[in-house]
Structures are given as structure tokens and as C-alpha cells.
Design brief:
The complex is a heterodimer of chains A (114) and B (109). Chain A has 114 residues and is an all-beta fold. Helix content of chain A is 0%, strand content 52%. Chain A is built from no helices and eleven strands. Chain A is globular. With 109 residues, chain B is mainly beta. Chain B has strands spanning 5-7, 10-14, 19-24, 32-38, 45-50, 56-59, 62-67, 72-77, 86-93, 97-99, 103-108. In chain B, the strands form two sheets. In chain B, strands 2, 4, 5, 9, 10 and 11 form a six-stranded mixed sheet that branches. In chain B, strands 1-3-8-7-6 form a five-stranded antiparallel sheet, with no helix packed on it. In chain B, a hairpin with a 3-residue loop joins strand 9 and strand 10. Chain B is globular and about 40 Å long. The chains are: A mainly beta (114), B mainly beta (109). Chain A binds chain B through residues 33, 35, 40-45, 48, 50, 56, 58-59, 90, 94, 98-108, and chain B through 1, 31-32, 34, 36, 43-46, 49, 51, 89, 91, 93-102.
Chain lengths: 114, 109
């Protein structure tokens, strides 16, 4: 099925460990986003990529790095995980990056940092 | 960073009631306003994207309006059903899409 695929779906880390969340879309969309979801906070933008080769910070970028590897893939890396990064992470993509097209979301990745 | 605000935070209604929520956003440099429906343990699903002042969109019993000059959008649900229970998110953007915290709707039979 066409859409946005995130891996892994679940991950438990110890404080200080690193990991990368992978996201891939097969809809030929230009823009890709990483959000985190915390209770009572809605979706907060971590990083986004308006097009291949570009990335920009969102609302809560500290503690994260991203790579737009190619048009399909946008990964999110935690270099040294902290308990405050326990959250559900959503990747999304958007056609043409115009902002006037809907986002398609992945299924989410639940990360727990102990 | 944009400040997108939604009210109320939560809403409980009886089946058959009509209801509405508000999304407010900065009107300067407005580009688009999105509405999403988000059921627990699922991913957000798009309802509408609106770009023009005065836009009205409708999907079944759900409709939305947009006022870009004063910076608000309303989402209406006519004759609420239990399956409408979800969190409704709005998002606005200039160069990036920023979400509000959502309105959590519960419809009781």
C-alpha cells in the first residue's frame, strides 16, 4: 500500500543510548516532517524537510538530528537519549511542499527512554 | 514560531447534538489552514485544507469555515455520532505546518 512507513514501531532505550527512527514514503512527495506527540501537547514539530537536500528546525529540535537521505527517506536521530524524549513520534509527508496539500502520516513510533 | 490555539480543549456531547470547535492562528503571512481527525492509537487523517478567506468545506456531516483576516476557523459537526469521538486538530503554516493542541470530542450514545 502506498503511504508513509516508519520503523521501528516500538523501542525502549536507556538514557544515553542513541538510535535512529526511519521514515520512507512512496508517494513522490517533496516535503517530509517529524513530529512528536505528548499528552496535552498535541503534535509538535521537531524538524522538517521542504525538499530533498534541505532540512530546517521546527518547534522542539534540541536533542535531535535529521537526514534527508533522498526524496523518499527522512530519518530522525537521537544521539544521546534522555527520558524527556519518551514520546510517540510521527513522520509525515506532503506533496509539492506548498503547505496547501494535506499531510499523510505514518503509523507512529513509540519510544521509551528509561 | 506560529501560535495555533484551539478551543475548547475537550467536549462531551450526546448523540444527535451538533457541535463546533474553534481554531485561531496568526493572520499575518497566512498560507493554509488544515483540519485533521485523530482517533486514539491511530494516525491523524486529513479532513480539510483551506487557503482562501471565506472558504467553506464540507465532508458528510462535518464542515469548516475560514476567516483569514481575523485568524480563525470553525469546525462544525452536525448530528454527532459516537463514531465521531476523536481529537480534532487544526494546523496552520507559513513555511512549516504547526499544529494546535486539539479538541477532544466524546459523543455519548
Amino acid at each position: 500500500n502506498a503511504g508513509v512507513t516508519q520503523t521501528p514501531k516500538f523501542q525502549v532505550l536507556k538514557t544515553g543510548q542513541s538510535m535512529t527512527l526511519q521514515c520512507a514514503q512512496d508517494m513522490n512527495h517533496n516535503s517530509m516532517y517529524w513530529y512528536r506527540q505528548d499528552p496535552g501537547m498535541g503534535l509538535r514539530l521537531i524538524y522538517y524537510s521542504a525538499s530533498e537536500g534541505t532540512t530546517d528546525k521546527g518547534e522542539v529540535p534540541n536533542g535531535y538530528n535529521v537526514s534527508r537521505l533522498n526524496k523518499r527517506e527522512f530519518s530522525l536521530r537521537l544521539e544521546s537519549a534522555a527520558p524527556s524524549q519518551t514520546s510517540v513520534y510521527f513522520c509525515a509527508s506532503e506533496e509539492r511542499g506548498s503547505g496547501a496539500n494535506v499531510l499523510t502520516f505514518g503509523a507512529g513510533s513509540r519510544l521509551t527512554v528509561l | 514560531i506560529l501560535n495555533v490555539e484551539q478551543s475548547p480543549q475537550s467536549l462531551h456531547v450526546q448523540e444527535g447534538d451538533s457541535t463546533n470547535f474553534t481554531c485561531s492562528f496568526p493572520s499575518s503571512n497566512f498560507y493554509a489552514l488544515h483540519w485533521y481527525r485523530w482517533e486514539t492509537a491511530k494516525s491523524p487523517e486529513a479532513l480539510f485544507v483551506m487557503t482562501l478567506n471565506g472558504d467553506e468545506k464540507k465532508k458528510g456531516r462535518i464542515s469548516a469555515t475560514l476567516n483569514t483576516k481575523e485568524g480563525y476557523s470553525y469546525l462544525y459537526i452536525k448530528g454527532s455520532q459516537p463514531e465521531d469521538s476523536a481529537t480534532y486538530l487544526c494546523a496552520s503554516n507559513t513555511d512549516k505546518l504547526i499544529f494546535g493542541t486539539g479538541t477532544r470530542l466524546q459523543v455519548f450514545p
